[in-house]
Amino acid sequence: MRFGYARVSTKEQNLDRQLDQLTAARVDRIFSDKISGAKESRPELDKLLSTLREGDTVVVCSYDRLARSSKQLFDLAERFSDSGVSLVSLKEGTDTSTPQGRFFFAMCAAMAQFERELIRERQAEGIAAAKARGRRFGRPATDAGKMDTAIRLYQNGGLSVAEICERTGVSRAPLYREIKKQGITRKQAS
User: Fold this and answer.
1) Taking a C-beta distance cutoff of 8 angstroms, is the pair 42, 35 a contact?
2) Cα–Cα distance between 95 and 86 in angstroms, integer?
3) Which alpha helices (DSSP H) does the chain contain, by range?
């Protein structure tokens, strides 16, 4: 049987383009995940792997939809090979059932890893340049005055945490962190 596998990284992204390509490639069944490729366990990929039998073919639109690193891709390809399963990539035009396809697969996997490393390097350089220009990353600190007010309201015990947050504009998580950090207790309502 010919099985298709499609993946996007987030729930907001759309699988339609991949599903259309896999359908046009005449696969018998498609498995699809909306999860980061960095995750070792992906529910639909796991189902696909447990379904495969000798003589089957796995079709992907591109190798980067199947794996996020050369190691991960080679591990899957080796697993397929050991089980007598072929791997076909539509974008790269490879089919591991042939010697030429296996050679080209190895070249594509190495190039994909190289490209990811270049992207990661450029991203790190961009972040370093932004920091050097004074750009700050992360969420801004909670205003100290608002936090003090929220703590006093919490200690008085007259309002729920939701009400305190609404009145002061302090979010729950920072409020709870500060309460824990200061070891604050709450007065019991009479």
Assistant:
1) yes
2) 7
3) 16-24, 43-51, 63-66, 70-82, 99-132, 144-156, 161-168, 172-182
What phi, psi does 33 have (nearest 5°)? -120, 150
Residue 38 confidence class, pLDDT cut points 50, 70, 90: low
Does pLDDT of 188 surpass 70?
no
Angle, in degrees to the nearest 10, between helices 172-182 and 144-156 = 70
Amino acid 109 reads A
Chain segment 50-82, per-residue pLDDT in tens: 999 999 999 999 888 888 777 788 888 889 888
Which residue shows structure tokens 């042939």? 98
**Three-state DSSP class for 53?**
coil
pLDDT digits (tens, 9 = 90+) for 2-34: 999 999 887 778 899 999 999 999 999 999 988
Structure tokens at 42: 């992906």
* Tally of CB atoms within 10 A around 177: 13
Catalytic, 83? Answer no
**List 9, 62, 69, 81, catalytic entry:** 9
Q: Are 32 and 56 in contact (CB under 8 A)?
A: no
What does the CA dihedral 49, 21, 13, 46 come to, rounded to 10 degrees?
Answer: 0
pLDDT, residue 124, reads 92
Give the Cα separation of 67 and 60 in Å (integer).
11
